[in-house]
Amino acid sequence: MKSLPIQRRTLGLLAVIVPLLALFVYVGLRSGPLAPVAVTVVKVEARAVAPALFGIGTVEARYTYKIGPTYAGRIKRLDVHVGDAVKAGQVLGESDPVDLDDRVRSQESASKRAMAGLREAEARQGYALMQARRYEKLQGAHWVSEEFAATKRQELQIAEAVLSAAREDMARALSDRDALVTQRNNLRLVAPVDGVVAVRDADPGTTVVAGQAILEIIDPKTLWLNVRFDQLGANNLAAGLPAHLVLRSRAGQALPGKVLRIEPMADTVTEETLAKVAFDTLPLPLPPVGELAEVTVDLPALPAMPVVPNAAIRRQGEQSGVWRLVDGQLNFVAIKQGASDLNGFVQVRDGLKAGDRVVLYSEKALTARSRFHIVERIAGISK
Question: pTM higher than 0.70, yes or no?
Answer without folding.
Answer: no
